[in-house]
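User: structure tokens for this one?
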Amino acid sequence: MRVIQRLIKSDPIRIKLLRSAFLVPILINILTHLSLNALTVSRTIIRPNYVNQQTCPIELQTLVDQMLPDLPSYTNRVIERRSNSREFERDASVLIAGQLDKLEPLPFNVNLDYPDETYLVYLKTWERQYDTNKIIRFQKYHWLFLRKSASGWELEKMFSKSSSYPRYGFYSLPGETSKSAIAEAIRLWLRDCQAK
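Assistant:
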């Protein structure tokens, strides 16, 4: 021990070498651990439902349960791509999507191509839109008509209505939204799911 102390006192270069020899393995261990954790977290955030899934679910409720966590990010990407061409959806974003057990019946008849093969799913989204100096938060209710085809589930038609905010131009009458950003997001998610 005294020999080591004498060496350290007499040679400052050896002190630096001993310190770096001691610190380098610790730093490598810390950095490796952090990068692996960051990789795991990023995978979880980007594709939360795809990590452990091998195939797209056949059962409708399982499919909807897997789609809902991904629906806001899919919809927001569609809105971002469309932002130059669609005036109404610009500066809007979907925050959360959830399923409803029941929703009031639509006040009109819906003409479907395959009525016997079509299932109705009710969704609710919490959305945010930016006005000049305000943030408007509102809810939307959606009637999804999903059909099981030979290639998998397809969105046949969709109708939506907003919470009623007449002051901001939102009215509570349902209308067809089969070409809306959220409808396109649902179609993209179903395509990605079936590609697994």
